[in-house]
Amino acid sequence: MTNELCLDGQWKLFYFPQGERHIHYPDELSRLQIPWIHASVPGNVELDLVRDGLLPEPFVGTNINELRPFELYEWWYSLEFTVPSTMEGKRTELLFMGVDCYATYWLNGEEIGSSDNMFIEVKLATTNSLIQHGVNKLFVRLRSPIIEAMERSTDAICYGPITNGEQLFVRKAAHSFGWDIMPRAVSAGIWRSVSLVVCEDHALTDLYFYTLSVDKNLQAAQIGLFYRVATDPAYFYHGLEIRVTGKSGASEFQMSKPVLFHVGNLTISLENPHLWWPNGYGESPLYEVTTELIHQGCVLASRTERVGIRHVQFIRTETTTAESGGEFLFKINHTPIMCKGSNWVPMDAFHSRDVSRYERALQLFCETGCNMVRCWGGNVYEDHAFFNFCDSHGLMVWQDFAMACAVYPQTPEFSEAMRSEASSVVRKLRNHPSLVLWCGDNECDEAYQWFGLPDPNVNRITRTVLPQVIQQYDPHRAYLPSSPYLSPEVIQSGNMNLAPERHLWGPRDYYKSSFYKTSTDHFISEIGYHGCPNLSSIQTFIEPEYLWPFDSQNEQWITHATEVSGSQGHNATRIQLMANQIKELFGAIPESMEDFILASQISQAEAKKFFIETARLKKWRKTGIIWWNMIDGWPQFSDSVVDYYYGKKLAFHYIKRVQLPVCIMIDEPANWHVRVAAGNDSREFVAGTFRIWEADSNEALLEGKFDVEANGTSELGQIPISHAKQQLFLMEWNIDGHTYGNHYLLGFPAFSLDTYKRWLPQIAAITNDFQADAIGR
Question: Per the database record, which ranges form the Beta-mannosidase-like galactose-binding domain (predicted)?
Fold first, then answer.
């Protein structure tokens, strides 16, 4: 029996500047003969205009700026559909998975609802009389978010970046109004799927699985289930029960319980459970769990979920110092986890294309040995396909709520909007075992400081509304008010560096400067360094006459910097920042484009390798590093290690080596020596052999056998050095017949770019996992 009709596909799209035509009802569109084009659902209106030849490819040159006039347009989607006979006469609802964003809905000429939030699903009940036999007509009107934002009331506490203040009043991805990593693309569209769904008489309307406990010997576990059912109330007293059956390999369980009311809880005990572990610490098995609502032996409703059993502890202190210490630590199944990962930014400026990029982008996290993904607050909330991948591959997800780098309204209306949004998102995503942390926002605590406001702890959204939602709908998962969180104790001290978790941006100077080397934080959730995309990628989005040089008059490089305000804007300096970082390492800015690209990628690769190694060498003082960032959401010059077209920069390969579960690393010089250590971020004791030699002379510096305990670090020895020398040390180690490699760059800049070019093939040859002559091309 058909219980869902997918309405994705080709719709009609009418559009015009908002206010130009005073159209308030769908039938006026035809009467006034408003022109239309074909539109894709899911889709974005700009992509429809491009397909119809009305806009150029927005990611080339400065074409993104041609989208600006359309910010003030309204858009009318129209679809005719026929309901199958099996659905006729049944209660149904229209389900819109994502609409961007101020929408009014009509079905067969009758207004049936409205919505004003890009992030949440919209369910619109229909009636038997409203759904017609034969052709039905559905219309969706989208109003300009800019005009809507202008009509919202504001107050003196609200602050936002000067180029995107609109984001404060519109529940829409903040980056779309322009960001330092994304262009201004204030899009509109029905960006996720649409369907007509039958409302069943009997249903399991809500299932929430959670891990209650895992014993310290990992031999037993308890999981809980909260459920909500819809059925005939009379059944509660006549043999109604809920049955839960789960299986993961040889591990199985089954439990039944009478249902005496429409909500309830049950607890399931397991012996020798198959536990879910982060990548590198074990497998990530999932139980296929079927929940059935049964009445007198007859199954009324059934749902199947994939459930992971894992016990998560999030341990943190309000402050930290170098002397007294502190904590910011994730434990999974009682095991401390050294978190290594990257920030997840928008996959595309046009979010209807996100899902097509999920798997390939997330595979990059697996390839580089990541075990954590931080979903940044300037983005959308990703869909189930994203979390399903993370569930299956052991990628822990840190999820920000969708607020970033601003002081948001503190009005009752905004609080209720955020309560509604958070309730919807939390209930949607809470069954995913990969999700280990909800975080209130990105850098909004810091924004209070930027804008001269004394204390972010007055923020009712992150201190009251969101924790209440978590307590109500997902009480078995941790919550952090902001990233970084500036607690009352930190604010009272007047020293923001006392926060145990920080974003290390600072001056963005030499990557081994004191700013990076002396930070007292435990967990770094943002840190980055610039590197050019590959030449072939740059040639895709920069037109030939603008390819070189990169100077302040090159508007296409500035546009892809990303800068929405032209050459005088703040982000216009980011290309020069990258050039300065090159000059810091190599003493000069290369004159050729090819050398500039290569030098920037070397600078970025050495920097990010150093950041990760520093964190691992200070384990457990340092408990995690989430670097910025894996892949771009549009073609640009940025901190990403993979460009929008999936071109891998040199940093990708270096990170892949230093994020191995077992890695041999060299620390910075002290007392005319460098120490050599082996880090083991796994649950297994490891033993092997290693060799370290000098690249130019091939002289052996240190070699022998080594072993390192589970989740530990071992000192392998010291190598004498001279501060007057610039040398490349190469490292190779063998474990169970597998060979791995790393390198260390000794000395003070400026290094010779020609010398590094000569070294690069030797670095690549250690394990032959990348081609040196392909870097930058």
Answer: 36-192
